[in-house]
Amino acid sequence: MGKPLLLGQLILFCYLRVLSGSLSHDLKSDQVIMNENNNVVEIVQCRMCHLQFPGEKCSRGRGICTATSEEACMVGRMFRRDGVTWLNFMGCLRNCANVKNVRWGSYFVDFRCCRGYDLCNEKL
Question: Which one of the record's GO molecular function terms can you name (predicted)?
Answer without folding.
Answer: acetylcholine receptor regulator activity
